[in-house]
Every structure is written in C-alpha cells, then in structure tokens.
Amino acid sequence: MREMECWKQYGFALFPRAVTHFYALRYLLWVKELPVDQPYDIHHQYLWDIRMHEPVYEAFSEILGTTALWAHLCPGEPAAVKGAICLQQSVQVPVKQWSIANIGDLFIYNAEECRIDLDAMPDYSWLPMTYFPAAPDNRSLLKERLRSWKASPNQAYLSARGNKLLGSERW
What we know:
Blueprint: H1 2-10, E1 12-15, H2 21-33, H3 45-52, H4 54-64, E2 69-71, E3 81-86, E4 91-93, E5 99-101, E6 106-110, E7 126-128, E8 131-133, H5 139-151, H6 160-166
Antiparallel strand pairs: 1-6, 2-8, 3-6, 3-7, 4-5
Helix pairs in contact: 2-3
C-alpha cells in the first residue's frame, strides 16, 4: 500500500477520498454558519459522522497498529500521531514530499517527525481528525470524555463503533 510506504519513509500519509464530499461539505457549511459567539460543539452529529466513517477509522487503525482507538476530543489527550480532513480543493500539504490534498482526503502525520502547522493554512482548509490508542484503564481521562459527552447540548447518534471511539463501550 502506497500510503504505508510514505508513512514509514516520511512520517505522513495521505488517504484519498477517506470522507465523502457530502460529509465534508455538510460539516463545512455548518461551521461557516455558526454565529461568532456560539461555541464549537465537539459532539455535533456532523463531526461524529466523520469520526465514525469506516475509511477514516481504518486509516488510523492501520497507522497506529490497533483497532482499539478513541477519537481525540480535547487538548489533554495524547496525540503524537495527528490527522486532518481536507475541506477544500487542491490544498498543498507542506511536507518533505509535496502533496496535493483534495476535499475529503485524510492527512495523517507524526507530529514529532513532521513539523507542520495546518492551522496556518487558509480558513476552513482542514478539519482536525485524530485518534489514539484507547486507554480504558485511564479512569480520569475516561471520566472527562464521558463528562464532556453528557454536557453537550447536541449529543450525536453513535453507532457501535462511535460508542467505542468515545469510550462509553469497551473494544
């Protein structure tokens, strides 16, 4: 697989069309329509639809070498391997081997090897989308994840995979 060769050699991989245009555009429209004073909800259905999307999950599972993953929800969670979904057409990814990402492409990179700041890219170019190996024995982290879920005004519908990615069910 070309993506894994690139991961091993350069510390990044680009997974084309990991997310359908529908999911990417629906999320983008939602974010652009948010009032300036309204907080961003990490548990909105549109985000969880992308988190639960099988190709996104499978890409991270392959890179991280485990099927037991949690979706990254807040800054206190471990994430040496990061990812983002491209929300625009033809965005250059500034890495050793320049790549072009298109809407729905998933870019995963090792933050310790690739010094890249996707936040510095033009507005609405990327949706951060990161997973890390599940840590069900880390009771304080699990408690915080479930607390943020219960406090959300827009609890999404979660599939069986979604409940596992949240941590409300064990892998």
